[in-house]
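Homework help board

Subject: predicted structure for assignment chain

Our instructor gave us this sequence and asked us to write out the predicted structure in token form, then describe one feature. I got the tokens but I'm not sure how to describe them. Can anyone check?
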Amino acid sequence: MAEAPRQLQVALAHGRDTARYPLAEEVSQEFALFAMKFYNIFREAYCRSIETPESRGKGRFILGIDAERIPSPSLSSRPWTRFRINSARCMTPTEVPSFLGPDFNAQELLAKIAPTFDYFEQKNRPDEDEFIGIYLLRGVFKTLSGIVPVCGCTQFPIYSVPTADVLAGKVPMSSVIGAPDPSTESTSTSLRRQTWEQDLIAKVERLCGRAYIEETLSQ
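My token output:
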């Protein structure tokens, strides 16, 4: 891990702006709050991602979400607003190491989340009435303590939909336990003409109070 200059650490040890100059543990705590805040939106994105033609019928998928920390956020900002989504993609378990990239020890992380993956595989059989979705939220952040890679693995159930239908891309949103209701603020900004990835990014940006410029997909 690359260490911040000693002089900077000493200079900021007292009266430090924790938003602009966070320690590794502070960024990890902020990132956990970000993950909790947008839990339902990430689950909705997962369901939409496996409904796409390129994903339909190809087996079990994991949603990978790549996030970054906003440069120099205001000290008065809420911790969960200090991140944004860079990109997201639907992938198979074998593609997880390439998604994590060189900043992560893929073997170590996969060993840590192996029980989650095992449960994911065991539950998602064609004869099951409960399908388990899973997503990975990753980010590599510059902190006063050095460069810190953070990744969280979350699983969630989709009830009352045969697994065979889920694997075929048939996932009615009403079946997702805890999915945002269409009348709530998290989905009121949703434009179904956007791709699921664009919609995910737009929702997070709006709920964090940042402007999001939408591209018109049909000219």
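Reply (TA_rk): Your tokens look well-formed. For the description, you could write something like this. Strands lie at 62-69, 83-91, 131-143, 146-158. That's the kind of observation they're looking for.
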